[in-house]
Amino acid sequence: MLLDKPDDGAGHRTEVLRGELRHLLLDSLPPGTVKWGRKLSAVHGRDLHFADGGTVKADALVGADGAWSRVRPLLTEAKPEYTGTCFIETYLYDADTRHPAPAAAVGTGAMAAVIPGKGIQAHREANAVLHTYVALSKPLDWFAAIDFADAPAATARIVAEFEGWAPELTALITDGETPPVLRPIHALPIGHRWDRVPGVTLIGDAAHLMPPNGEGANLAMYDGAELGKAIAAHPDDLEAAFAAYEQALFVRNAEEGAEAARDFEVVLGAGTPQSLVDLLR
């Protein structure tokens, strides 16, 4: 054990399950605000084309549609690029009873076991759930050769990269109770920005996809709040609202993107695990 930081009880790093957060936000909206089952397939100008054949012409368009945004090309030619690392996601349920060894290894919060280019990172969620991200820095072609539809074979291939690691750690992979899910890590250029296009803007990963460092959802919610404040401050001038929002967003993009890239290098780069210990200490 290189570093152990027990919770001090101050609540400075509170968390919420993503599903519960979605319910909190959705339940705050008037019924019918969200139109389900309408996958956006293309955007031409402010004409939205959906997979069900329907179209909508928007007076204003906010692309909150994630890493592979259909709205982003209206503003910029930038595309996410592979960072060189993939995560493989697994879950253990009722871990304290059914998986006591990995549960003890993860503890009551989060755990990271890393060396340069690979690692096993897990955190505890409500109801004794252990959520694991296995990190491997390899070309996409390496992962493409694995049939993730064959869960046992995929699991065996991934855990083979951790030969000799402690069994309570590798059990987070081998005992996974859901099929392993491949998560290639992509990012937009640090400081991604665009010229003002009337009636269109972006929030969240559509605007600033970064390597994961625990702040992505926080930044997306912050973007939404800041955009809402800008619109409230300019109720009769949407262009002024979008321009004010973007001016602050671009500064935030550059700062947060650089920090996320540094954090990613700290976790899996040549200096780990000591660089991670130094960051967290």
Which features characterize this protein?
five-stranded antiparallel beta sheet, single chain, 10 strands, alpha+beta, globular, 281 residues
Instruction: Classify the helix fraction into a percent range.
Output: 25-40%
Assembly form of the protein:
single chain
- Tally of alpha and pi helices: 10
Low-pLDDT stretches: none
Task: Detail the topology: elements first, then pairings.
Layout: H1 18-27, E1 40-44, E2 47-50, E3 55-57, E4 61-63, E5 81-92, H2 95-98, H3 100-106, E6 110-115, E7 118-125, E8 129-136, H4 140-144, H5 151-159, H6 167-174, E9 181-187, E10 200-202, H7 205-208, H8 216-233, H9 238-268, H10 274-280
Parallel strand pairs: 4-10
Antiparallel strand pairs: 1-2, 2-3, 5-8, 5-9, 6-7, 7-8
Helix pairs in contact: 3-6, 8-9
Task: Please provide a written account of the structure.
The protein has 281 residues and is an alpha+beta fold. It is built from ten helices and ten strands. It has helices at residues 18-27, 95-98, 100-106, 140-144, 151-159, 167-174, 205-208, 216-233, 238-268, 274-280; strands spanning 40-44, 47-50, 55-57, 61-63, 81-92, 110-115, 118-125, 129-136, 181-187, 200-202. A five-stranded antiparallel sheet has the order 6-7-8-5-9, with helices on one face. Strand 1 (40-44) and strand 2 (47-50) form a beta hairpin. It is globular and about 60 Å long. The model has no long low-confidence stretch (mean pLDDT 95).
